[in-house]
Amino acid sequence: MTIALAADERRGGGRAASSARSIGLAVLRRVGYAVGVLWGAVTVTFAALHLKSGGIIDAIIGQAAVSPEVRAQIISDYALDRPWLVQYFDYLGHLLRGDLGHSYNQGMDVTTAIGDQLAPSFELMAAGVVLALVGAIVVALLTANRPRWIRGPFAFLEIVGVSVPAFWFAILLLTVFSFQLHWFPAIGSNSFRGLVLPAIALAVAPGGTLAQVLRDGLERALDEPFVTTARSRGIRETAVLVRHALRHALMPAITIAGWLAGAFLGGAIVIENVFSRQGLGTLTVGGLGRRDFPLVSGVVLVAAAFYVVINLLIDAVYPLLDPRLRPVAPTTAGPVNAAAAGITSTASPSVSATGADQKGEG
Amino acid sequence: MTSDSDPTTDSDPTTGDPTTGDPAIGDPTIGDPTAPDPATQPGDPRTLVDVANLRVRFRLGRRSVDAVRGVSFRIDAGQSIAVVGESGSGKSVTARSLVGLAGRGAEVRADRLVIAGTDTRTLPERRWRTLRGRHIGFVLQDALVSLDPARRVGAEIAETLRAHRVVPRAEVDARVVELLREVGVPEPEARAGQYPHQLSGGLRQRALIASAIAADPELLIADEPTTALDVTVQAQILEMLAARKRAGTALLLISHDLAVVSQVADHVFVMKDGIFVEHGPTRQVLDDPRHPYTRQLLAAVPVAHARGTRLSPQPGGPVAQPRAVVGDGVVLAARDLVKTFALDGRRILTAVDDVSLELRAGETLGIVGESGSGKTTTARLLLDLERADSGAVEVDGTAWGEIDARTGARLRQHIQVIYQDPLSSFDPRYPVRKIIAEPLAVARVSRAERRTRVLELLDQVGLARDVLDRRPRQLSGGQRQRVAIARALAPRPRVIVCDEPVSALDVSIQAQILDLLADLQARLGIAYVFISHHLGVIYHVSDRVLVMKDGRIVESGDVEQVFREPRHDYTRGLLAAVPTLDGAALRPPAEPRATTVPESEGAVA
Amino acid sequence: MTVTPVDPTGLPPGGASPGTPVGASASTSTSTRGRWPWLRVSRPGVVLSFAFLLVLVLASFWPHLFTGTDPNAADISQTLRGPGSGHLLGTDQNGRDIYARIVHGTRLSLWIGLSASALALVVGAAVGVAAAQGGRVLGAVTDWLLSVFLSIPGLLLALLVIAMLGPGTRNSIIGLSLIFTPGFARVVRGEVMRIRASVYLEAARALGWPKRQVIIRHLVPNALGPVLILATINVGGAISLGSTLSFLGLGPQPPTAEWGAMLSSSRTYFSVAWWPAIFPGIAITLAVLAITVAGQFLQARLEGRNAR
Question: Which GO biological process entries does UniProt record here (chain C) (predicted)?
C-alpha cells in the first residue's frame, strides 16, 4: 500500500509547528461549532416567539395589563412593525450586546432578572452536582465487580433513583423530614440547612444514572487485558482501580455530562418550585404562569449557553483522559498513522503498510 | 534455536494425572507421567514453580465449568517450557493461576502450588503482589490491549519498577530507557514518552515484554505473545524471547501453534480439555508424538509434506485427497485493477495497484500477503462490492458494470463469498435454515424446493439437521463456517471467494474446513480464490499463488514453484520468517534465517 | 431484584456452545462475566415489572375492575381523611377518594407518556433516516439541528413549547415529544449507519439482493430493535416528565384525575396531610420503575443476541 506523501512532510522537520497549528484549528472548529449551536438555539426561540398563536405583541406582554402607550412603546421597542428578517437581526444584535429583552411582568430587563436569580440556583446545582458525583463515584468504586449481595441492592437503588420523579422525591423528603419530623426547615430558607433536602432531591436521579454508567464502565475496564497485565506487575488493587480503571470508566460518564448538566438544570427548576426557593426555576415557572415570553426564552438561551460551554469543556477533557483522541499533526493524522506516528522519520515502506491497513482491508 | 542439550529440561516436569482425564483421551500408550526427578525436590532453590494436581473451576451462576482438571509440572531456573492447546483447553487459565489471576469466579485448588519457594494455596492477595512482577513476569497477547492505552509506555514499565522498588526513585526513568533498549526498541528515550497506539505492533509487544521483565523475574510467562502479529514481526519477537532464555530467564510459553513454540521451547506440554495429554522434549513430541491428539494436531498443520493429503483425522493416518481437475474455461478474470482511497484531503492510499488474475474452473488460486497488502480489497473488487478505479472484472465472461441490475443479480449467483468471521456475515436475527436458504430466495426458488435443497446442502457440508433452527451464535466456530459454506454453495456458484476462511479457527477445526473445501471442489468443480496470510494454508490449498505486497502482485505462479524457488526478495523473507515444525518444510533449503534483520519490522531504523 | 449472570435464552459466555467438537467444556475466557451488567437485572424483578405493567394497562382500559368509586365525587364532609376510614388511601382536600383517582388517572398518565414517546419515535426516525441516507451535507445539517435541540434542557424545551402554545394535555404531549425526538434521530441514524457498514449487509448484497430488498429484509428489521427499546424506556421518562409538567400546572387541568395534577392540586395541604402527597407519587414511581426495568431487560436481551 503506497501512501502518497510529499517527501519533506515525512521528515520530522515542521512537525511541532504543524501540530500546534492543527490543535489550534481543532479548537477553532469546536468553538465555531459551539457558536453555531448557540445561534441555532437563538433562532429557535425567535421562531417560537413569532410562531406563537395570537399576536407577537401578546406573547411579549403576556397577561400583564398595559396602557396603550406602553403597548406602542413595546411595538417600537421590538420593531414589530418591521419585516421579520429585520426583527431577527435586531434580536441577534440585542443578544450580542447581552440584552435578552424586557420582562414587563418583572418590570426589568430579562438579563437583570436572570442575573439576580443565578446565584441561588447555582448554589443548589453545585450542591447537587457534588452530592451526585461523590456518591456515584464512591458507590461505583465500592460495588464494581463485588458479590451479588453488595452490588444488587445498590443496583436496585440506582434504578429506583433514576425512575423516581425529582419533584415527587422532593415532596417525599419535605413531607417526611420537614412536616413530620421537623428536622429541616420546610420552605423558602436560604440557609445551609435549607439547602440539604433540595440538594438531595436534585442529586438522586442524575446520581443514579451516573453510578450506573460509572460502575458499568469500571466493570468493563476491569475486564480489559491491560488491567490483568497491570495486576501481573504486582501493584495494589487500589492502584489498579484508580490508576488504570477509573480513567477509562470516566469516559462514558463524561460523554453524558452535557445531558447531566441539562438534567440538573431542569431538576433545579422543579425543585426550587417545590421548596419555594429563590432561583431561576421559580422565576421561569412564575413567568410561564403570566406568559412572560421574553423571560422564558431568556432562561432557555442561558441554559443553552450553559450546555454549550459544558460541552466545550468536555471536548477539552476527552483528550486529557484518552491520548488516542488527541489531535495529531496532519502528517500523522488519520487511520494510517496509528502506527505510523512512531515511525515518521525513517519508515521503510513495508512498515507503513502494516499500519495503513484499516482502510484498504476494511 | 531449540537447544536440546540442556540437561535439566529432559527429566523433570511431570504431566497431569491421566486418571482424571477424559476416557477418550486417556490413551494407555502414553502411560504414566514421568516421575519427578529425585535430584530436584520441592524447595530446591532452582525450582521456580512446582505445581501438583492443579484444578481450576469457574462458577457461572448455577453452572460451573472445570477449566483445568489436574495438571502437574515444574519449572526450574533457566528452563523453557511451552503449553500448547486449542482454545478452551485451559492453557491460559493454567498460566494465570501461577500469578494468582485465574479470573473472577475461579476456584483454584492444588495439591501443591509452590511459586518461588512460597506455598501460594492460601496466600493472601497482599503476598501475591510480592510474587507478581518480581518473580514472575507476565505477557499477554496483543500489546495494543494489554498496555493501558491511556498511559505512556514508559509509565507502564515504571509501574513494575516502582511496585517492587527495583531501583531508587530517581533512577526509574533511566532504567525504563535501559529496559526498552534491552528489548530492542530503537530510540528508547522517545518511545518511553509515547502511547501504545503510536507504536507498531512489534514495538508494542517489545514494550510489554520490557514491563514484564523490569523487575528481572526468574520466570517470564508469555500467553500467545505473537498471535496478533505479522509473520516477519513474529519471528523477531520469538528471537527476542529466545535471547531472554539464553540470558538465563525461564520461559513459560502458551500457544495454540506448535510451530511457534518449537522455535523457543525445550519442553512441550500438550493440553486438551484441562489436562496434559502428552509432554516431552520438544523435538521428541514433534517427531514422535505418542498421544493420538498430538498426532491429530500435528497432522492438522498444513505443512509441505501434507500437501495433497487430508488434514483431519482419517482411520489409518493421512490419506491422499482427490484434487479437482482443472478445466480450461476461465470462470473469473481481472485485468489491471486499481483501487485508491482518499484518506484525507491530501493523501491517497493505493490499496490495489495493477492487479490482474485469471481463474479456471476447479482451480484454487491462493492470494497471500501480510496485513495491508491489499488482499481483501482485491476480493471486494472481484465480488463487485467495490468498483475499481480502473480495470475490469469478468465473471463467466460477463464484466461487472457493463450490465443492468437484473443481470448483475444473476451474475452474483455464480460468484459467492466466505468470510473470516462467518458470524458477522449472518443477519443476527436469522436461524440457520433461513441463512442457508437466502441465496435461493434471491433466485426465486420455490419454498418446497428451498427446503429440499437446504437439507441437501447440510449433508454436503457435514452438518446435522438439528442445527437448522438454531441461531449462529449457538454454534461453534467450525459449525458456523460450515453454515457459511452451505450458503455459498446454495446457488451452485462457479467461483467462491474465500477471505481468510480459517484464520479464526483452531488448527483441528481448520483442518476439517480445509478438507471440506477440497472435497467440495473435487466433487463440484468449484473454483476458489483463497485469501490468507498463512503461508502453510496457502501452500496446502492452492494450485497457483499470488504474493501481494503494498497493493501489488510481487510474484505469481505455480505454488510448488513459488514456494521452492521464490524469486522475489519479499517472498523469500516471508517464507524465511515462517516458524515451522521441522525447521525447513516451507523454506527454500539454501536460505538461512539471517534475512530477517531484528529491526526491519517495523518501525524504523 | 436479584442477579443472574447468564441470559436465559443466550449462551454461556465465552462462546463455547453445544456441539463444539473440541474443548467445548473448558472455556478460557474468564472475563466475560461482567460484560453484560444489564443481564443481572433478574427474572423476579422483570416478571414483577411486566405484571405491574399489565395491571396498569388493565386499569387504564377498565378502571372499574379496580374500583367502583367515582373519582370526581367530592364530599365536603369527608375532606382529608386518612387512609383506612372507609377510603383505602384516604381522601383529598375536596373529599375525593384518592385510590379511585389514582386508578382513573392511570389512563391519562400512561397516554401522555405513550403518545409523547410514539410521536418522538415517528419524527425522530424520519429525521434519522434522512440524515443517514442524505449524504454529507444533510447529515451535517441534521447533526447541527439535533445539537441545537439537545442544547436546551428537556424540561425547558417543554416549557418553551407550552409558553408558545399554552398549557394543556395536548400541548404538554407535543412539548414532551420534542424532548425525546433528537435521541431517536441519533439512535436511528447510528443504527442505520452501523448496519450499513456491517458484514452481513455486504453479504446480503453479495448474494444478489437488489438494494431495496436489502433494506427491507435486513436493515429495517435490525435497526428496529434498539429503536423500539429506546421507545420503551422513553415512555418511562415521558411519564415522569409529564407528571412534572402536570405538577407545575401546565398539563391536564383540574379537576381531571391525573397523577401529577393530583399532587399539584393538593400541594398546599401537604403540611397537614401526608397521604395526598405520597400515594400518587408512588404510582408514578412504580410505573416508571416497571417500564425502566422492562426496557433494560429487553435491551440486555437484544445486546446478548447481537453481541459478537
Answer: transmembrane transport
CA C245 vs CA A182, B27, C172, C173, C283: distances in Å: 28, 75, 7, 10, 16
d(CA A225, CA A251): 18
Reported confidence tier of residue B593, pLDDT bands at 50, 70, 90: very low
Q: Report how far apart the first and last C-alpha atoms of chain B are (Å, whole number).
A: 25
Nearest residue, CB atoms, C248 vs list A40, A273, A307:
A273
- Please write the tens of the pLDDT for every residue from B385-411: 888 899 999 888 888 877 777 777 788
Q: Can you give A38-98 as a three-state secondary structure string?
A: HHHHHHHHHHHHHHCCCCHHHHHHCCCCCCHHHHHHHHHHCCCCCCHHHHHHHHHHHHHCC
Identity of the residue in C1, C159, C277 whose CB atom sits nearest the CB atom of A152: C1
Q: Residue A81 is part of which domain span?
A: 21-68+75-99
Q: Quick one: A46 and A168 in the same domain?
A: no
Record: contact B506-C28, CB cut-off 8 A = no
CB B75 within 8 A of CB B252: yes
Task: Check residue A150 and give its pLDDT.
Answer: 85
Asked if B533 is an interface residue toward chain C (Cβ–Cβ < 8 A), one would say: no
**CB interface of B with A, residues 566-605, below 8 Å:** 570, 600-605
**Within this chain, do residues A125 and A61 fall inside the same structural domain, yes or no?**
no
pTM metric for this prediction? 0.77
B206 touches chain A (CB under 8 A): no
**Sign, CA torsion B177/B182/B183/B185:** positive
Kindly tell me if the per-residue pLDDT of A47 is higher than 60. yes
What lies within 8 Å, CB to CB, of C274 at 6+ separation is: A175, A176, A179, A180
Q: How far C68 CA sits from the closest chain B CA (Å)?
A: 47
Supply φ then ψ for residue B250, to 5 degrees.
Answer: -75, 145
Q: Hey, is the C-beta of C155 within 8 angstroms of any chain A C-beta?
A: yes
Rounded to whole angstroms, the Cα distance separating B381 from B389 reads 10
ipTM of the complex model? 0.78
- Does some domain include residue A221? yes
Cell of A274: 417545590
- The CATH number of residue A308's host domain is 1.10.3720.10
For residue A57 the three cell numbers come to 405583541
Lowest mean pLDDT of B40-44, B61-65, B466-470, name the range.
B40-44
* Domain tally, chain A: 2
Q: Same domain, yes or no, for A294 and A246?
A: yes
Which pLDDT does position C305 carry in this prediction?
A: 61
Q: Is residue A289 part of a domain?
A: yes
Question: B324 and B362 in contact (C-beta within 8 Å)?
Answer: yes
Residue A239 CA to residue A250 CA, distance in Å, equals 16
In a domain? residue A11: no
Domains and CATH numbers, chain B: 47-135+220-299 (3.40.50.300), 146-216 (no CATH), 330-431+494-577 (3.40.50.300)
Q: In whole angstroms, what is the distance from residue B11 CA to residue B39 CA?
A: 10
User: Which segment of A173-177, B305-309, B355-359, C253-257 scores lowest on mean pLDDT?
Assistant: B305-309
Which option is the CATH number for C48-61+94-302: 1.10.3720.10, 3.40.50.2300, 1.10.760.10, 1.10.8.60? 1.10.3720.10
3-state secondary structure of B600: coil
The answer to whether residue B584 neighbours chain C at the CB level (below 8 Å) is: no
Q: In what order do the strands lie in the sheet with B544-549?
A: B415-418, B495-499, B527-532, B364-368, B544-549, B552-558
Separation CA A352–CA A94 (nearest Å): 55
Q: Are residues A90 and A160 in the same domain?
A: no
Residues A255 and A136 in one domain: yes
Interface test with B, best of A354, A358, A359 (most B CBs within 10 A): A354
Burial profile B257-289: b = 16 or more Cβ within 10 angstroms, e = fewer: bbbbbbbbbbbbbbbbbbbbbbbbbbebbbeeb
Cβ-based neighbours of A58, under 8 Å, separated by 6 or more: none
